[in-house]
Amino acid sequence: MSTNTTAGPHRVSEVQRHAEALLAHLAASGCAPPSEAGFPDDPNSWLPPALEALVAILAEEDPLEPLSRAAQRDQQATALFLCLALAVAGHGTRIHASWLATAFGELSLDRPVTHGQRALWLAAARGAYGPAGKIFVLRRLDALAVHRAADPADWVRALVPGEPGIVIPPSLADYPELAQLPELARPAQAGARLSRLLERCVEITSMREEVAAPLTNGGGAPASAWAEDEPLAVLRSLIGLSGPAGPMASLVSHLLDDLRPGADPHLAIVALHVAAPALKQVANDLAEATRTDPPESIDVPMLGHQIRLRPEGPDANCLEAAERAIALEASADRSAPWPAWLLLATAVACLVATVVTGWLAIPALLCGGLGGWLLWRRQKAAESAARYLEAQLGELRELAEGAVWALHAYAREAEARAMQAAEDAAEVARLVRRGPRAA
Q1: What pTM does this model have?
Q2: What sign for the dihedral angle of Cα 246, 251, 256, 259?
Q3: Coil, strand or helix: which one is 309?
Q4: Which residues contact 294 (CB under 8 A, 6 or more apart)?
Q5: Is residue 354 assigned to a domain?
C-alpha cells in the first residue's frame, strides 16, 4: 500500500500538502477545514479521490463517486486510509463494515502483523469504531486460536511477570525451613500464583470500565487520546510523508506485550480475551496443585541431623540416632586428664622425697594444688557439657514435637487453601469469560 508518485513531483507534493493539512485539522478539531474543496486528481494515485471521499463523508454528503475511483486504483489502501482518518477524527462509527474488513486483510500466525493492521487493532480496541469494531478484531483473533501458539506459562509470565518468593504459610511461620521443602512449598506457591493471576485479571477488567468511553472530539483533540501513534504514523506513511516503517512483530508477540503490566488498558482487555482459554487452563492447574495431600512422612534437618516426622510424631529411631550422635559429639573432646595426673604423681613423689630429704615440701604442695585445680576445672567443664547436652537433646525433642504440630496445622490450612484456590480459579474463569463483552 503506497502512493504512486510517477505523475510528477509538483502535483504529488501538492496532494500531499492537502492531505497533511487535512489530517492535522482532523486531529485537532475532528472536521475538515472549510477551504478544502477539490483535489488535483492523478489517474495513477488513489489518494486524491480518497481525500475527496473523506471530505464528503465528514460533510455528510454522498462519497460514492470519489470512493469508487479510489477503490479501483487501490482498494485496500483506500479502505485503510478512510478507516484510520475517521478514527483519528473521532468519527470512526461512520465507516462501512466492509471497509474495515478490506483494510485489515488477513492475519496469520506465520506472518508479522502489518503496521496498518496494528493501527486498526488499536483504534478498534479504543472504541473508535464502536462495539462492532471491537467484535470484528476479537473474531479475527479468535479465528486463529492464538492461545495455542504459545505455551500457557508464557501467557501467565506476561500477565504476572516474575516468580513469587518463598511462600511461608501462617502454620509454618515458626518453621520457615519446612516451607522450603518441595512437598510443602508447591501447594502454597501454586495458591500464591493463582492469587496474583486473579489480581491482574481483576485489574484489567476493572480498567475496562474506567476507559470504556469511545474516541470522540468531546472536550479535546482526538489525536491526544491515543496511547500510541500507530494510526497517525500509518496515515503519514500512506500519503508518503514518512520514511520506511519500523520492524514488525508477530501476532503472539503483540498479544504478550499487551498483557504486560503498564500496557495500554484497551489492548490488555483484548489480549486477555484472546488468552482466556490458556489462562483458565493454568488457573485450573494451579487450583489442582493446591489440593495435593500432605506427605505421610517428611525428613527435616534439625540441629544438623535428619529427623523423619510423621503425623503421629517424630520417628523414634531417627530421634534416638540423632541423640546418640549429639552425645557422641559432646564426648568426642573428652581425653584423659594426663596433665593433672602427672602433677599429682609429681606431688606424691615430692612428698616421699620430703620424708627422706626434708626440703621438697613446697614443690609437693604446688604440684598437688595445681593438679587438683586442673581436676576441679575439668569436672566443672564436664558438668557444663552435660547440661549443654541435656539442653541440646531437649531442644531437639521440642523442635521435633513442634514441627509435628505445625504439620498438623499445615494440613488443616491446606483444606482452606484448596477451597480458596477453587474459588479463585472460578473467579478467573468468570472474569476472562467477560472478554467478548469488552465490546
Answers
A1: 0.72
A2: positive
A3: strand
A4: 183, 184, 407, 410, 411, 414
A5: no
Contact indicator for 235, 1 with CB cutoff of 8 Å: no
CB 159 within 8 A of CB 431: no
- Does residue 217 sit within a domain? yes
Q: How far is CA 290 from CA 154, 415, 423, in A?
A: 21, 9, 12
Asked if residue 350 belongs to a domain, the reply is: no
Angle in degrees, 0-180, between the axes of helices 265-274 and 182-210, rounded to the nearest 10: 130
The count of structural domains within the chain is 1
C-alpha cell at 329: 559429639
| pLDDT tens-digit readout, 232-282 | 888 888 888 776 667 788 999 999 999 999 888 889 999 999 999 999 999
Determine the distance from the C-alpha atom of residue 63 to the mean position of all C-alpha atoms in its chain, rounded to a whole number.
Answer: 48
CA gyration radius for the chain? 41
* 215 against 383, higher pLDDT: 383
- Residue 332 grid coordinates: 568426642
Per the CB < 8 A criterion, the answer to whether 12 and 20 are in contact is no
Contact call for residues 86 and 54 (beta carbons, < 8 A): yes
- Range(s) of the domain holding residue 160: 9-290+434-438
Q: Angle at the Cα of 190 (from 302 to 254), degrees rounded to 5? A: 135
Does 238 fall in a domain?
yes
Residue 12, beta-bridge partner list: none
- Summarize pLDDT for 292-348 with one digit per residue, the tens: 777 777 777 666 667 777 666 666 666 666 666 666 665 545 555 656 557 666 766
* Beta strands at 305-310 and 298-302: parallel, antiparallel or unpaired: antiparallel
* Lookup result for grid cell 497517525: 232
